[in-house]
C-alpha cells in the first residue's frame, strides 16, 4: 500500500474545508471512550509505522485509526497522554453538559456563580491540556491563573446579571451566561498560558528546525485560540435562548419544565458537534509569523534567527504550534 506520512494531516491544512474535515475526524467524541490499552497500542503502532517497522499485514485502515486515536489523545508537543476531560474530543459531551446547565440555571445569583465556576474549571483544564507544552508552567502559576480566570468569570456573570435585571428584559437576561463566558475566555486562556507570553514559544523554519523563540508568536496564537473558543460556544449560547423563549410560550412546554434542562443540554450538543471542528479550523494549527514582524517587534529574537540560519537565506515566514 502507499505509505502515509504519519506526522501530517490526511487533508490539506491550507484550506478551511481541509481543516474542518481534519478536526471533525480528530475531535470525534467516540474516541473518549476508547480504552487506555487501545490508546497505548495506537501510539505504539504509530511509532512503529514512523520507523517502517509495523507488524506484517497491517492495513491502511488500521494505521489511519491508530493515527486518529493518537492525535485525539496525545499531546502534539510532548507525546504524553492527555487527561480525557481536557481533550478537544471531550468538548462536545463536556461542553453540552456545562453550557446547557448555564443556559437553564441563570435566574439566581448562586446558580450563576456555581455554573460559571464549573465552566471555568472545565475551561482551565482544557486550556492547560491543549497549551503549547514547550513553555512549562509552575503549580503556583497555574493556581493563580485558575483563581484569576474563575474570579473574572464570576464577577462578569454576577455584574451582568445585576445590571440586566434592572435594565434588560427577561429575554436578554438569558444572554448573561454568554457574556460571562466570552469575557472569561479573554482572561482564562492567556492566564493559563502566561508562560508562553512571558518567555515565548519555539518557532520553526519550513523544515521544522527550531530557529528562535517568540512572544509575538505566542500572543498571535493565544488570541486566535480565544477568538475560536468564543465562536465555538456562540451559536449554542445565542440561538438556543431564542428557541427556548419561543417554545416556553406553548402550554405543552410549560407542563414539562423538568425536561427543559435536558432539552437545552441536547440542543447545545447539536450545536457543538458542528462548532467544535469549525471553530478549531478557523486558523491553521501550524501558525505562521512573518520574519519581518519578528525583526520589527523582537529584534533580539530576530538576531537569533539570523544566527540559526547562518549563510542560508532568511525564510520569509517562521512557524509555531498555536495550541487549541
From TrEMBL:
Q: Name one Pfam family in it.
A: SFXNs
GO molecular function annotation: monoatomic ion transmembrane transporter activity
Signal peptide as annotated in the record: none
State the membrane topology: Multi-pass membrane protein
- Transmembrane segments in this chain: where? 144-164, 225-243, 263-283
Which keywords, in A-to-Z order, does the entry hold? Answer: Amino-acid transport, Membrane, Mitochondrion, Transmembrane, Transmembrane helix, Transport
Q: Which residues form a coiled coil?
A: none
According to UniProt, the name of this protein is Sidoreflexin
**Primary location group:** mitochondrion
Give me the Gene Ontology terms describing cellular component: mitochondrial inner membrane
Q: Name one GO biological process term.
A: serine import into mitochondrion
PANTHER family membership: SIDEROFLEXIN, SIDEROFLEXIN-2
What does the sequence similarity comment in the record state about its family? Belongs to the sideroflexin family.
The source organism is Diploptera punctata (Pacific beetle cockroach)
Q: Where in the cell is it found?
A: Mitochondrion membrane
Amino acid at each position: 500500500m502507499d505509505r502515509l506520512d504519519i506526522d501530517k494531516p490526511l487533508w490539506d491544512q491550507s484550506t478551511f474545508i481541509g481543516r474542518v474535515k481534519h478536526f471533525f475526524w480528530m475531535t470525534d467524541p467516540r474516541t473518549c471512550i476508547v480504552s487506555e490499552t487501545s490508546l497505548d497500542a495506537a501510539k505504539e503502532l504509530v511509532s512503529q509505522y514512523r520507523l517502517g517497522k509495523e507488524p506484517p499485514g497491517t492495513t491502511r485502515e488500521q494505521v489511519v485509526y491508530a493515527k486518529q486515536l493518537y492525535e485525539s489523545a496525545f499531546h502534539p508537543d510532548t507525546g504524553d497522554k492527555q487527561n480525557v476531560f481536557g481533550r478537544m474530543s471531550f468538548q462536545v459531551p463536556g461542553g453540552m453538559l456545562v453550557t446547557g446547565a448555564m443556559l437553564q440555571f441563570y435566574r439566581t445569583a448562586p446558580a450563576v456563580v456555581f455554573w460559571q465556576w464549573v465552566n471555568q474549571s472545565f475551561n482551565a483544564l482544557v486550556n492547560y491540556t491543549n497549551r503549547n507544552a514547550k513553555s512549562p508552567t509552575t503549580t503556583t502559576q497555574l493556581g493563580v491563573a485558575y483563581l484569576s480566570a474563575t474570579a473574572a468569570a464570576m464577577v462578569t456573570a454576577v455584574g451582568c446579571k445585576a445590571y440586566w435585571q434592572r435594565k434588560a428584559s427577561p429575554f436578554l437576561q438569558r444572554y448573561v451566561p454568554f457574556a460571562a463566558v466570552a469575557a472569561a475566555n479573554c482572561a482564562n486562556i492567556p492566564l493559563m498560558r502566561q508562560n508562553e507570553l512571558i518567555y515565548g514559544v519555539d518557532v520553526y523554519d519550513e523544515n521544522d528546525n527550531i530557529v528562535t523563540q517568540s512572544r509575538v508568536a505566542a500572543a498571535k496564537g493565544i488570541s486566535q485560540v480565544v477568538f475560536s473558543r468564543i465562536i465555538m460556544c456562540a451559536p449554542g449560547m445565542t440561538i438556543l435562548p431564542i428557541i427556548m423563549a419561543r417554545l416556553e410560550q406553548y402550554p405543552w412546554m410549560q407542563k414539562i419544565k423538568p425536561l427543559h434542562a435536558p432539552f437545552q443540554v441536547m440542543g447545545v450538543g447539536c450545536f457543538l458537534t458542528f462548532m467544535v471542528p469549525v471553530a478549531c479550523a478557523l486558523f491553521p494549527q501550524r501558525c505562521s509569523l512573518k520574519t519581518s514582524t519578528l525583526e520589527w517587534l523582537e529584534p533580539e529574537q530576530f538576531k537569533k534567527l539570523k544566527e540559526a540560519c547562518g549563510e542560508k537565506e532568511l525564510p520569509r515566514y517562521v512557524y509555531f504550534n498555536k495550541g487549541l
